[in-house]
Design goal:
The protein has 22 helices and 24 strands. The strands form 7 sheets. A 6-stranded parallel sheet has the order 3-2-1-11-12-7, with helices on both faces. Strands 15, 16, 17, 18, 21 and 24 form a 6-stranded antiparallel sheet that branches. It is flat and about 110 Å long. 5'-O-[(L-methionyl)-sulphamoyl]adenosine (MSP) binds next to helix 1, helix 8 and strand 11.
Length: 659
């Protein structure tokens, strides 16, 4: 193992539904940290992937009428699937594992067998509760109000022959690991784990299932499949080549430097995973970091609530970098945060359009206007620096170290806070120096003006380097605009004031972060959300069949006739009613009023042959008499009521009786 390597992972995703902004948050955060480590010069292995086994997937596939593999393939590799999303979000993972990959499956079988052979896995009988959506076993005492303590949903009774992992054996070592090292962060999560899971007594874990088949088969006991969490957690080592020949950098990268995980799966990563590794005799990861959740209106995002936020839509509307930045800047990484579109737009407009965007565009525009795009050589230094120069330069020079401290402690939101303090200071520096006033007398103040602009470019460069892990594409454009060479985009150069050449070629390019018209954007998002809600509604709903019988004689009393539409028009002052003049075969016209104006234009019905019930007592509507009722078919499509008049063949003569 070399000291320079850095191994970082995100949880591998359940491809049971499309990913939402919460999943994106976790992967973007991990990506920013991985990019930061690369910037530091580390050899990074960044792993993500998909966790494709388990009963939930098997059930969903059955519902969709496809095989589980076909089902997951579509969500992982299909249009706007997991792979597409990570590509769009510019996720720089070095490896992608699918737990259905052959090499992983056979490695899991070996891992399971090893733990069986060393006595840590034994056969027994499971009696307890199981939460299908979470794929978690629970004991009665762990339930909250009789429901799953993680998701609050109903649990099912489960009783089956199963293999167990001797988790209890490792309880003391795990408690020591959690309490006496920095293994798990933030610290608040340690108390949660110790008090809720370890102190009440760590029970052995059921690690095989027999009631479904979509999993890694236990090769020495047909009928059993490996518990999905044992399968999933092991991805962190199989993806490096542990117990397989597909890869061979296990020795180089293991132990992981950090597993970034959401708070609800900290339990699996900080208790079960270290115990498994202890059983296998492998070193433990250096850290598990449990981040908070993005909430919507204070509650959880979930497909069943219909309130998930689609990252594709946000990235397409506001830009990938703006979205990445917003996620990292706004929510303290270890805590929960409330997502809202308003907050997203506000952050883009304040930080990106106003503060950073303006700094770049004002500075580059002035270098263009006053110096033709190139400052005079020698403007880097100023014989008698003014107080404002010293303030800006010392803040920008100290920035990298403060940022490093925050990034190393998994507080990217704080690192960004530091960067934006400097950006705000630089904007103030423009106002303090009023370059436009200096430009009025270039002979007298030209040199001072060049120095002021250099200080601004250099501050922008340092901030740009440190923002690269968060907004890689935009920072490349920024560097091009301020003329930053390759050598002054590096971590080292971010710590050295004056790295930018004072003779760099500056060009005012495209506006990096256009201002968002909040009202228009919110309206558009609302429209899209409405559409998504509709799309989630059942495609087709018909009324349940009546269970009440009607006797034949009563039915026969309905006088149903074919009628021809002689005329049809809107009823004045009503937006619902149409007035029909009908030929009912009697030689005199019949008038029927029908509340279907929203479905038909009157002229399109003239000449059609419809069906009417003609022996209803006449009734008045909007002062006009209706002599019967036209028959229509009614159903609901995506929440919207649809109506179709019953039309019959024109070969049927007016007055023909329907029976
Ligand atoms: N398959 C498991 C992980 C196995 S790792 C060995 C799993 N998958 S998941 O798709 O349900 O969740 C993946 C990650 O997304 C988790 O870290 C979870 O916390 C995170 N998030 C899901 N919804 C989230 C929010 N609303 N907010 C932030 N992160 C959230 O768990």
């Amino acid at each position: 193992m070399s000291d320079n390597r850095f191994y970082i992972t995100t949880p591998i995703y359940y491809p049971s539904d499309k990913l939402h902004i919460g999943h994106t948050y976790c992967t973007v955060a991990t990506d920013a940290i991985a990019r930061y480590q690369r910037l530091r010069g580390r050899e990074v292995m960044f792993l993500t992937g998909t966790d494709e086994h388990g009963q939930k997937i098997e059930d969903k596939a059955a519902e969709a009428g496809v095989s589980p593999k076909e089902f997951v393939d579509k969500i992982v590799c299909g249009d706007r699937g997991v792979l597409d999303l990570w590509k769009l979000m510019n996720i720089s993972n070095d490896r992608f594992i699918r737990t259905t990959d052959d090499y992983h499956v056979s490695a899991i079988q070996k891992i399971f067998k090893k733990m069986y052979e060393n006595g840590d896995i034994y056969k027994g009988k499971y009696v307890g509760k199981y939460c299908k959506p979470c794929e978690s076993f629970w004991t009665e005492s762990q339930l909250v109000d009789g429901k799953c303590p993680d998701c609050g949903r109903e649990v099912q009774d489960a009783e089956e022959e199963a293999y167990f992992f001797r988790l209890s054996k490792y309880a003391d070592r795990i408690q020591d690991l959690l309490e006496n090292t920095d293994f798990l962060e933030p610290r608040s999560r340690v108390n949660e784990m110790v008090n809720n899971f370890i102190k009440p007594g760590l029970e052995d874990l059921c690690v095989s299932r027999t009631s479904f088949t979509w999993g890694v088969p236990v090769d020495f006991d047909p009928g059993h499949v490996v518990y999905v969490w044992v399968d999933a957690l092991s991805n962190y080592i199989t993806a490096l080549g542990y117990d397989n020949d597909k890869y061979d950098d296990f020795d180089k990268f293991w132990p992981a430097d950090v597993h970034i995980v959401g708070k609800e799966i900290v339990r699996f990563h900080s208790i079960i995973w270290p115990a498994m590794l202890m059983s296998l005799g492998l070193p433990l990861p250096r850290k598990v970091f449990g981040h908070g959740w993005l909430l919507l209106d204070g509650g959880k995002m979930s497909k069943s609530k219909g309130n998930v936020v689609d990252p594709y839509i946000l990235a397409e509307m506001f830009g990938v970098d703006a979205l990445r930045f917003f996620l990292m800047r706004t929510f303290p990484f270890g805590s929960d945060g409330n997502f809202s579109n308003e907050l997203l737009i506000q952050t883009i407009n304040t930080d990106l359009a106003n503060d950073l965007g303006n700094l770049v565009s004002r500075t580059t525009a002035m270098v263009g206007k006053y110096f033709g795009g190139q400052l005079p050589a020698g403007c880097k230094t100023w014989a008698e620096p003014q107080e404002v120069d010293t303030q800006l330069i010392s803040m920008a020079s100290a920035l990298r170290d403060a940022y490093q401290k925050d990034m190393d402690t998994y507080a990217p939101h704080k690192a960004l806070e530091e960067v934006f303090k400097v950006i705000q200071r630089a904007n103030k520096y423009i106002d303090e120096n009023a370059p436009w006033a200096l430009a009025k007398d270039m002979e007298q103040s030209g040199a001072r003006l060049a120095h002021v602009l250099y200080n601004l470019l250099e501050t922008t460069r340092i901030c740009g380097v440190l923002l690269t892990p968060f907004m890689p594409e935009s920072m490349d454009k920024l560097f091009a605009q301020i003329g930053a060479c390759e050598g002054c985009r590096t971590w080292d150069s971010a710590g050295v004031w004056g790295s930018l050449s004072d003779h760099a070629t500056v060009s005012k390019g495209e506006n990096l972060f256009p201002r968002v018209d909040a009202e228009k954007a919110l309206e558009e998002l609302e429209r899209v959300a409405e559409e998504a809600k509709k799309a989630a509604l059942p495609a087709l709903e018909v009324e349940p069949l009546s269970e009440e019988h009607v006797d034949f004689d009563t039915f026969c009393k309905n006088d149903l006739r074919a009628v021809k539409v002689v005329n049809c028009e809107n009823v004045k002052k009503s937006n619902k009613l149409l007035k029909f003049t009908l030929d009912d075969g009697t030689g005199t016209h019949r008038q029927i009023l029908s509340g279907i104006a929203q479905y038909y234009k009157p002229e399109e019905l003239i000449g059609k042959t419809l069906v009417a019930i003609v022996n209803l007592p006449p009734r008045k509507m909007m002062g006009q008499e209706s002599q019967g009722m036209l028959i229509s078919a009614v159903h609901t499509e995506r929440g919207e009521e649809k109506l179709n008049l019953l039309m019959v063949s024109d070969a049927i003569p007016a007055g023909a009786k329907l029976c």
